[in-house]
Every structure is written in C-alpha cells, then in structure tokens.
Specification:
Layout (H helix, E strand, L loop, with lengths): L2 H26 L5 H4 L2 H5 L9 E4 L3 E4 L2 E8 L2 H5 E2 L7 E8 L15 E5 L1 H4 L9 H9 L3 E5 L5 H12 L6 E7 L3 H13 L4 H8 L1 H13 L5 E2 L4 E5 L5 E5 L9 H23 L3 E7 L2 H5 L3 E2 L14 H12 L4 E4 L1 H10 L13 H25 L2
Parallel strand pairs: 4-9, 6-7, 6-8, 8-12, 12-14
Antiparallel strand pairs: 1-2, 3-5, 10-11, 10-13
Helix pairs in contact: 6-15, 7-11, 8-11, 11-13
Length: 386
Amino acid sequence: MNYGNVQKFSLAVGSINFILICFELPALIGLVDYSALIGAHSTLRAPYALGLPTTPDPELLKLRRYAHQTGSARGGDAAASYHIPESDMTPFQWDAKYDRNGFRNERDLQSADMVVIGDSFVEAMTVANAELVTSQLARLQGKIVANLGQSGYGPLQELVVLQRYALPLHPHTVVWMFFEGNDLQDVIFYRLMLEHPPTLRQAFWKRSFTRNAYLAVKRLFKPPVKTPGTQRAGICQGPDGRQLTTYFAYRSRALSPEELSALDETARAFATAYKLCAAQGIRLLIVFIPTKFRVLHSLCQFPPESQCSKWLLNDLPARLPSALRSASLDIGYLDLTSYLVEAARTEGLPYYRDDEHWSPEGHKVAAKAINDYILSTSSQEAVRQP
C-alpha cells in the first residue's frame, strides 16, 4: 500500500470516527437517549417513548427540561407487542409542549389552584392539549390546573414531584393519580435502581448510538416474533351496536408478595404526602386508575384463543383505600372504575382499542368524575363548618 492510499484510508477512518463522536457526544452527556429513539424500547412502548432529552437525577432517576415534540405513529402499546390487524391500529398524532421542568404545560407556572400528579395517563402526550384531563378540569373548575404527569414515573418519584414542583405552586388541591397496571412495579424498579445504580459507563452504553444502531440493524434482518393479538383480545359491543375488537396489554392477576410490599411503601408515600399537604392547608385526593381489562372485561366476549377469559381480578381497589384510611381519614379517594364502565356501556370506549391509555373520551370521563367529587366533598365540608 503506497503512501497516498494510506493517507486516504486514514482520512476515511478519521472521518468515520469524527461522525461517530458527533453522534455519541449527546448520549455521553445525557442529552439524547438513542434507546428511546431507535432502540427496542422505542418499539415496545411506541408511540409513548419519544426520546425526550433527559438528564440523570439522584431522586427522580431521569429529568427533562423544555421540549416541543411533534410526530405521528400507527399502533399503540398492544400493537407494538402483539400482531394485530392494521385495521385495528390507532393512528396517533401529537404536538406536545413542555415547561421548564419537563411537564406538559404550555407555559411556565408560578402558581396553580390545583395540580395533578401521575404518569403517562396524566402526561398523555398523544392527546391534544385541550382534551387533557388537566385542561378539562381547568375549564370545569374555572381555575389554573398544573399538569405534573410524566411517563415512566411511579409513586416514589411522584412524591419527589410533589415536594419539588407541586408544593411551591401553593395549590389548594393536589390530585394524585395511581395506575394499577404498573405503579407497584415502578416502586419495585425504583428501589432496585437506587440500591444498584448503573455506572456512568453502563448508563452511557445503554443509551449510546453505536449499541442501539447495531440492535436496530439486527432487528431489520431478524425482526422479533410477535404473539398473535387474538391471545389478548376481547370483543366489545358499543352503545351503537357495533362490535369492536380491543386488546389488553396488562394481564390481570393476583398481587405478588413484592407488589404487596410495594403497596405498603406506596401507602407510606401517600401518608407523607398528606402530612406535607395538610401543613399548608392543601387537600390531597388519590385517584385510582383501573386497568383497561378491569373496566371492560364484563362488557366483552372473549374468543376461544384469548387468554383474557382466564384472567382473575385482584383486590387492589379494596386494599388501596384501606391502606389510605390507616394513614388518615382525611385523604380523599376516588375510584374511576365505575365511571369508566358506565361510559363504555353508554357512550363508547374510553380507551384506544390497541392501547391501555385513555382516549380523549376517557380524559373527559376522568375530569368530570374528579370535578364532581371535589364539588360534592367541598359542599359537605362547608355544611360541617359552623
């Protein structure tokens, strides 16, 4: 090989390395997580894993700042994990704006009359801003309502959100949404991450471009085999008589010992939240978000090949308020199950057919139920006062 060829080869290698460094530098400093953009994680939870810029946080694990995300996708979380017909896939579009703290508010808030804390049900990035449960509550209440929901957070992170972001807004009411589908698992995962945090090298490698690009190319040549969606399907009859196939991503089963322990820890978090709120004269309302299966199972017929007909409902809706009562009788509690069941029976599915999350109709049902609860309990308190 002559000198000229060596020089060209060195230049080519140097150029490739420079380009690779340009891609990897944002991942190294935590501005980009390629596992969410092009990795398997983005496929498994599409379209909810957008890869918003995040930075490590010792209490929240991850923290994001200002962002404006627009995009579209076809198919929800069930379609990402199971093979379902194209005709059953939901077309999603989003145009979501976030405040300086990474929450779904179109402007930075210095104060709020009410804050709503939770996970992806509250953030709901595929739902238009005007249709969010927080936006509808604001209209019903005629007050400022802050959206402090963030996908992937569980109760222990949400307690940090209460202390760090909610209380400084000096609200008169804190609404804390608890989703039975994964919040207890989030507690288990959070504790595991605090006890065994990844090293800087491990964290970088997980979000690196090189690793995730390789895995993406590998999936192109050997795509993952998806389970037939019929195994997670039910046929629901709408109020108009149409029969619609809907899919259930969260399996209904008995609570494990680890989840029962996580429930105790969640109850302690709620008790701490109540003390913090009561010290400032703030009402605390815990809202139970049921799984899609809990809401729709009695309204569905299940094909012979569906596993859903063998699922059992656990007693979490009874355990949670009991745990809250042991902390304080003054903690408000609202179970959305009956409201969502009634909506499904009389108005139409409050969920996307191929996703566990609420459709805009579900946000409307939740907002009305919360508003009615707040108005009724406020009236009762006013009557009890001398």
